[in-house]
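[job 4471] stage=fold_predict status=RUNNING
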Amino acid sequence: MSSVGIASSANADCDLSDVGESLVGFTIVAEKTINGTFNGCNFDQAIVFTDNTVVHCATYHYAYAYQPEVYLFGNGSTYFMCLDNALIEIKP
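[job 4471] inference complete, writing structure tokens
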């Protein structure tokens, strides 16, 4: 898996060419939209999606976006959210 790019009509920005190897064994769990302004992740911070589902940050990551579309990846025990071409570890 040398390069994986994901593009959709929903405009989720997730080019995994740099991190594709990190996702071997993971599947796309969902494509979602973050509700409101996303100001990055702090450990255990809640991220609320427009469908009222919630995940929590498992790490720190700086980012800023208004209602970004994201992909969620999981393997049953570890989960990532792809936002602006970066993988952010999350907890369900």
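[job 4471] summary: The two ends are 27 Å apart (CA to CA).
[job 4471] exit 0
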